[in-house]
């Protein structure tokens, strides 16, 4: 599995953390390690999902995300 760290803007409370956790958890091949206000750490299977798809899932949940490099 690959690891990915995301910087996430627009999160301000526990509800935001839950929304991002849920959005990431619905993706195939994603295992969420940690979500907190402003960031997420996860592992993913590249055969099932791309970093771009992961970022889009967070954005679809209403937040701005980018992968840390």
Q: Describe it for me?
A:
This protein has 69 residues and is α+β, with helices and mostly antiparallel strands. It has 2 helices and 4 strands; from the N terminus they run E-H-E-E-H-E. It has a 4-stranded antiparallel β-sheet with strand order 2-3-1-4, with helices on one face.
Explain the layout of strands and helices:
Elements: E1 2-9, H1 14-25, E2 30-36, E3 39-44, H2 51-60, E4 64-67
Antiparallel strand pairs: 1-3, 1-4, 2-3
Q: Number of helical segments? A: 2
Helix-strand topology string: EHEEHE
Q: Which word captures the global form?
A: globular
Strand content: 35-45%
Q: Order of strands in the sheet with the most strands?
A: 2-3-1-4
Key attributes of the depicted protein:
alpha+beta; four-stranded antiparallel β-sheet; 2 helices; 4 strands; globular
Write a short abstract of this structure:
Helices cover 32% and strands 36% of the residues.
